[in-house]
Amino acid sequence: MDYSNIQKRYQFPRDFVWGAATASYQIEGAWDEDGRGLSTWDVFSREPGRVFEGHTGDVACDHYHRYKEDVALMKRIGIKNYRFSIAWPRILPRGEGEVNRKGLEFYSDLVDELLAAGIEPLVTLFHWDLPQALQENYEGWASRRTAELFADYVTVVVKALGDRVKRWATINEIMCFTILAHELDWHAPGGKRDKAYTNQTVHHALLGHGLALKAIREICPDAQVGIVENLNASWPYYNTEKDLQAARKAWKEMNAQRLFPLFTGEYDPTGFERHAGPLPRVEPGDMEIISQKMDFVAYNYYSCPPVRHADNEEGYEVVPVPQAYPRTAMDWPITPDALYWTLLFTKDFFGDIPVYIAENGMAAPDQVEEDGSVQDTDRVEYIKTHLRSCHRAIEDGANLKGYYVWSFMDNFEWAYGYSKRFGIVRVDYDTQKRTLKESGRYYSRVISENRVL
Ligand code: GCO
After folding, report:
1. Which one of the listed residues 28, 96, 113, 173 is annotated catalytic?
2. Considering 4, 8, 30, 285, which has the largest number of Cβ atoms within 10 A of its Cβ?
3. C-alpha 3 – ligand 1 centre gap (Å)
4. Residue 5's pLDDT is what?
5. Fold adopted by 4-449
6. Are 171 and 228 in contact (CB under 8 A)?
7. pTM for the whole thing?
8. Where are the domains of the chain?
């Protein structure tokens, strides 16, 4: 038996981008330092009952003070590209008006540190930490004003960092600060509202994306700009023509609210109303702003149930997944095939736009062994199987350019506080000690050999 071809099978393209991702509120801490204003998450996490055991991002991974150590560790792992986000309230403590130089300095120093370590930045401009002042003064994303002010803030950031940062993601996962906030009341700013209200906040976030994209283009015409979406990754249960067509239809309809309008410049009423409810109010010109050409689209992918053909009005149904099905510590079923199909459907519907997986990873219980190591074989397997899906999709024509593991290190997992660990690096929150997990070691080998091992 000759095994050499088998080992070569999962080799990635030479220019494939290997990265790791984090987000400001989840790692930085230093919540009231150097002039940072309050964010909606500072306020929300202090409300009783909102976050697991009352955890907050006050200290988090203390990355604000330890960024040099963190970048050095990234370099040691071999990470080529680091996706982080900028906290709007560090730059503009009240969301608008006066610029806080110290805030800009922090990110400028971080970018310099990364570049000196040979690590390219991908900067997310909004990962949910909205300045609290904008929530109080304008009701946040419920107002168009926030979309306009977002573009003003982006202008400040891109003017300061655009000489060194070449890739920008405008917004991360619109669903999580609109629908999760107002329909489910799980995320900041919180407060249950009806679907009409929620859908309007989604529309304003899309508008904010478009206005920001325009602003970046004006300052840095050569920059690469895109958005990060957690799309619905519906996929065929059986690989048959019937289930494939059902999944394709579900994929289109279930992404009618956020992903499709970015490309088509319209809200498809069938899919939208079926899955999201009433259409938002749209002002003339909005859809042109929203659907300006992007340089890439990025997805955060974790889990999605399969879909099959059904003799109902939709023509499809979601296949139930039993409780005993393999799941992550978030209770999310492990479904790597969805990633493969989503990459193909992207090509099918949107053509050859470059795609990045901006987040993928697994929450696991992570026991610490006596020698201090973490043998997170579960996370290793999760990464492996998802990378194989990526590879298979590239072989079948998908234009996937890169993959960012979520997350570089354990961090504040929103409403779950520090109870869920996603890192390939362990953080001991008592000492702030970082320890490379087995998954970190694995990922390091993947990067250096440019293949799934
Ligand atoms: C998201 C966010 C991350 C989360 C991660 C795990 O995608 O929800 O971008 O901040 O921590 O996804 O839930």
Report:
1. 173
2. 30
3. 38
4. 87
5. TIM Barrel (3.20.20)
6. yes
7. 0.98
8. 4-449
